[in-house]
Amino acid sequence: MRLRLLRFPCLCLMLALAAPARAALEENEARAAVVYHLTLFAEWPPGSQREGHFNLCVLTENENSAHALAHLNGKTVKGARLVIWRKHPMQDLGACQAVYLSEMSDPLRDHVINKLAGLPVLTIANGDIPVPGAMISLGVAGERVYFDIDLSVVQRVGLRLDAKLLRLARSIAK
Amino acid sequence: MAHDSGLTLIHRIARMSQTPKPLADHRRGWDRLNWLSTALALGIATLLLISSETTTLREDFQHRLATQASLVAANSAAAVVFQDALSARDNLAAFRHSPEILSARIFLPGGTLFADYHKGGANEESPPWARLLGLDRIEYQRPLRLENMTVAEIRLVADLEPLRARMLGFIAVVLGAALFGLFIAQALMARLRRAMRRAEDDMVRMAHYDTLTGLPNRAFFEIHTEQVLARAAAAGQRAALLFFDLDNFKVVNDSLGHPIGDQLLKAVAAQLGQVVRQSDNLSRLGGDEFTLLIEGADQHQASAIAEHVIQALHQPFPIDGHELSIGASIGIALYPDDGDSVDKLLRSADSALYAAKAAGKHTWRFFSAAMDEQAQHRLVLEAGLHRALDRGELRMVYQPIVDLGSGHLIGYEALMRWNSPELGEVLPAQFIPVAEETGLIHALGDFALRSACAQTRCWLDEGRTELVVSVNVSARQFYGRGLVESVRQALAAANLPPSHLDLEITETALMGAEQEVVDILNDLHALGVSLSLDDFGIGYASLSQLKRLPIHKLKIDRNFVMDIPQDSDDVAITTAIVGMAEALGLSVVAEGVETREQQAFLAALGCHRGQGYLFGKPEPAE
Fold this sequence. Notes:
- The complex is a heterodimer.
- Chain A is built from five helices and ten strands; from the N terminus they run H-E-E-H-E-E-E-H-E-E-E-H-E-H-E.
- An eight-stranded mixed β-sheet of chain A has the order 3-4-2-5-6-7-8-10, sandwiched between helices. Chain A has a two-stranded antiparallel sheet with strand order 1-9.
- In chain A, helix 1 crosses helix 2.
- The mean pLDDT of chain A is 84.
- By secondary structure, chain B is α/β, with parallel strands linked by helices.
- Chain B has 20 helices and 20 strands.
- Chain B has an eight-stranded mixed β-barrel, surrounded by four helices. In chain B, strands 6-7-5-10-11 form a five-stranded mixed β-sheet, sandwiched between helices.
- Classes of the chains: A alpha/beta, B alpha/beta.
């Protein structure tokens, strides 16, 4: 009888503990989906395409985030098969068309961004405020993922973003 | 006159209401059907046009809708995948520039509404007729696809009001055109119908009217008489049918030719049109037969009208340089006494006509039951006579002609006898008129000539070389066929010299003495046969004719001989005839000599020849 009485508070506690974990999981998935969709609205300069593959490189210290992105394997981007690569910040990223900088320390992130500067690689980084040097910064407000675009960086390397995408951006830096 | 008869014809057509009623009904029905079929055809064409236009406009509309939807869809796909409902709604709001779009909604694959747009005041109801015709609103949906994946679906609802407005305009134009077309078609059809009606009227007229005289024909007569009789029966009234033919029409037709005959008929019709009342229905049944149907007439009125008609036709008709005297005989039958049907009435009138003709022509007779029997008898005669020749029922008998002075036999008159198995001995006075009317007279005449010539040849061969045989020739034999050739062949067949043949002609044959008859007489004379004028004294032969024609002998009719020498008138006439004949160089034969006293008297008078029972009855040659 006593046990039974305890059942409800226990359940509530479990739910209360589980909720943030689930929220985190959903956020990762939502970010992964946005990352994928962002690739669909970008145009690379001629010659930067890899035959039959679209390489999306993920740099993260969060396993959940990596996991959520791995689910995108096999989708297509402009007809090319999407391949998700988990990369270390120190690794060569020259073969990537897009790089997603998820959770990592600021110095590492800056290092990667600097390494990619001038290359036709779409850089997407997590950041509630625009991440300097990243082409697109993803933030979360409530349940929605929003993004800021640094158009100057995009244009500098010859990439182009669809106007429809630009319209949806929270902010655009030129 | 022609103008008058034309008018009469028109009146008659008008009076009969005149296209027969069933034909008029038929026409009305036909007109209605025509109108309906044209209206139906135009209606169907209009419907087809409207439906085709509706389909086209609808497709057009749908196409525009699809274009708009695809534009918005392309713009909205990004909003959907980045879950920017606000932006999607902004995109949908672009539809406010398309007033026909009532609502636009974007649904996510699970069916969740993602964004929507509603036109303000879009809840107006479409008119019921538009709903009925499916012209109220249209729904359209298309998927929003990104990278071959359906990320959402856009659903549009559009009001078809612009299409309805265009459709109404189109329907107004098409209906206007259809009505105009119907009007034009009606106008054209009305013209066509009028032409057809005229053609039909012509046909009716041709079917019911005689083209030569313009009078109603037999078909019309029968239909009309039936109506008149029905009316008379209903009203308990009488009606009189006058059936008449022209007395000498056949002679005119045969001797002067059909064109003259036709002209004569036209003239007669015109003359009759002037003397009869318009209500007395005059018809031409064919040939020279006419009928006059008088409604409500009694015996007295009928005979008065008959007399009137006879008087009107008694005067000569000047045709093509000829003065044609014809005259008419009329038979009258009364309804209902003499027949209660058209057929019976016409037969009775025909019998009466026959009686009128038999009574000497130029007269009229009412029908009587006895005539019916006579008519029956005549039919039997006619049927029997047709077979008589083939069955050898006809034979010739010969009555002696003697020299009154010496009493010597100088010849015979050949007379025909008909011994019918059914009718017994039939007198020539009975069957010759029938033969004349039926045309059998030519065959009978040939038979008489050939038999008489053959018999005379026998007598010549027996050494009786002085004999001359006289054969009677009917007036009808002068017309139509070759009498001269017939005589020549009979003589040749019997190898008989022409001087042994004498042809007896009645005065009737000489009536009018047309050139054709004179030519035939001259040809016969040239052939070498002699010619006698039979029954002299009772007809109209004039002295000038006698002088002009190649006649050799006169035969004094038995009526003048019978009572001499007692009857002083007959004595005077006979004396005159003999004196005249002597003066003209003609010999005379007295017929019907029965006593020695008559023989002596005639011989003393200078009449050299005679025949009669005193010298012998007509007997077979054997």
